[in-house]
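Cross-posting from the chemistry board since nobody answered there.

I work mostly on the small-molecule side, so proteins are not my area. We synthesized zinc ion and want a rough idea of how it might sit in this target. Sequence and SMILES are below. Is it possible to get a predicted 3D structure of the two together?
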Amino acid sequence: MELNENARIDTGQVDDRRGSGGGGGAGIPIPLPGGGGRGGIVGLIIAVLVALVGGGFGLNAMNGGGAESGDNTALEQKCEADDALKQLDCRNTLYVNSIQAYWRTALPERFGQQYQPSKTVFFSQGVNTGCGQADSGVGPFYCPADDLVYIDLTFYQTLADQLGAEGEFAQPYVLAHEYGHHVQDLLGTEAQMRRQQQRDPGSANALSVKLELQADCYAGAWAKNATGTADEQGQKIFKSITEQDIAQAIDTAEKIGDDAISKRADRPVNPEEFTHGSSEQRKQWFTKGYTTGDPKACDTFSGSL
Ligand SMILES: [Zn+2]
C-alpha cells in the first residue's frame, strides 16, 4: 500500500482529544444492560479484547456526555508537514478521508441516500461519549448517540502484540469497519436490529453477529474502491493497494473472530456467545465485500450466514 504524498490530509474529519485527558478510566466499570455488545455502543471491532489486555470494561451507559471536543491545532500542523505520512495519526486521518469519500459517492449511488459525515475521535485511555464513558480497553467503537467513531490509536499495537494481527492495512480495515456501523446507523439498519433484539432477546447475539459481519463486508467494499477515492482537490488518496494489503485485512479479520479470541484467552469456544462472528465468517464477509465491491451484496440479514 502506498499513500499519495500529494493528497491533502483533512484533519477536519477527526477530533483530537488526546491532549484533554478525557476523564479516562476513572469511573467504576459498570456493565452495560444485557452485556457488552448490546448496550449504548456498537461497533467494537472485537468482542473481548478486554479479557486479553486485562483492562476494565469502563463504560458507564448512564452518562450522557460526549459534547466536548478536542484541539486539532497540533495535529493540523503535523499533517501539513513534509513527513506527515510517516505519522500514524496523519495516516489514520487520511484513511478516514478515504473511507468517507467512498461513502459520499456509494451511499447515494447504491442506496439512494445522502451520506452524512462522521468524525473520528482520537483519544487516549478514556473518553466521554454520547454513549457513556469508555476506556481504551474496549477497543475502537462507534457511538450511534453522537454519530462518532472512537479510537485510541495504541489499539493497533495491542492488535499486533496480543493477537498477532500485524501489517498496516489492519488499520484502515478497523476504521472502515467502524464507518460501516455509521452507515448502518444512517440506513436505519442498526435501529431496526435493536428493535428485533428487544422483541427476541434469545436471538440478540445472532443479530449482533449479522450487524458485525455486514460492517466487515462494508469494509471490504471500501477496500475494493479505495484506490478510486480522492481528496477535495481530486488528488488520489492511495497510489496503490496490493494483494498483500488485502491479505493483511483478511488475516486481521481472521484473528479477531470470536472463536480465535476465545482460544487465545484459553476459554471454551461457544458459538451461541459469539457477537461478532467466527474467524471464518469474518474472513468470508470481508472478502464478499471486496470481491463484489458492492455494499448491496452485504445483506447478512436475509438468509443464513
Ligand atoms: Zn463492529
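Reply from a structural biologist on the board:
Welcome over. Reading the output above for you: The mean pLDDT is 88. The longest strand covers residues 126-129. Happy to explain the C-alpha cell format if needed.
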